[in-house]
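Dock pyridoxal-5'-phosphate; give full complex structure.
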Amino acid sequence: MNDALVQRLRKSLGEREGSSLRRQLVARTADDARVNLADNDYLGLSRDPVVVAAGVEALRTWGASSSASPLVTGYTELHQRLERTLAAWQGYAHGLVLNTGFAANAAVLGGLPKEGDLVLADRLVHASMLEGIQASGARLRRFPHNDLDALELMLHEEPALGGVIFVVTESVYSMDGDGPDLRRLASLRKRFGFCWVLDEAHATGWYGETGTGMQEHQGVLAAADIVVGTLGKGLGSQGAYVLSHASEVRDALINFAGEFVYSTYLAPVNAATALAAIGRVRELAVERPGLQAMSVEWRDALCAAGFAVPTGDSPIIPLILGDSDVTLRFATALRSAGFMVSAIRPPTVPVRTGRIRISLRRGLTATSLEAFLSVLKGVSR
Ligand SMILES: Cc1ncc(COP(=O)(O)O)c(C=O)c1O
């Protein structure tokens, strides 16, 4: 290996090490029985018997791989059924399945905005959205997190450019578990005519009468021009999708997005499990208010124990602890007490906002909450 390269890599890894920020892979074992407060399988659907059975059947029918990119032979009847089901469920005319949420955001935001356009993005949008925007050549302005007054001001400030203005937000932010007022965004969109790209990754399954997400929950179903969602979180599968009202968005991705064109397509088994999961999500309508109530209960209990967590009812609770070494101390104590937790540190989150990202899931018990609190109380800050 080239020596200069190895030295360079060693230096940047050493810098991470020095500030307790070096990332390490830890392989999870199949028999890990710790209480899982780390993954994004909020409804536990990855192990739901109906979902698993659909996967087994698809494996028998289609094999383990799609075996080619979608424009060759990778696109199957299952993918087609899935994109149509997703679009109809969420109130859109067109849907396209992509391999990951990261690829979907990078494809949409890397491909649709062009030089001469302007993208106004929330300060905390996901890395995949940012990567896309930065690759697009469009001008980027970021507004303070969830601050729609600031967004409105920017919309007033920007002269009519001739280009397209995109507004990019999430509905539930992945590291903070909060989100903007979608009703106000919908009305701003009507007033200013921008193209609104909304990432619903962490809201699907948890919110909405039929479980589509936060647009449904806030009474503005299908208000965004383009929705990006993932199959790998609340739906317990793997993969992602892009929904739009205009067929041109789907056609542009099929024609121009390298992430779609030049990659072996999502395995049919993932499409089958996602389809089964959508059915389960719909059936869980009666449980959804209880899931949101659980989030409120955990937040209240954490506040009562002296931890400043924001109010809300999403599945993600940021337990912000500050410096990376303090965050790691809490994570280590929780792990050894039987909790699977992730310590989120910069650069994933802003400096000195290291946190345990508590990820709630269906089926968590009051006993888990009590045990969790008692571990927290025993760690020095
Ligand atoms: C808001 C958001 N969008 C997109 C993604 C990427 O989705 P995927 O895991 O399917 O690549 C993530 C992943 O964590 C996310 O938090």
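Observed: The pocket of pyridoxal-5'-phosphate is lined by residues 100-102, 105, 126, 128, 170, 174, 199, 201-202, 230, 232, 240 (CB under 6 Å).
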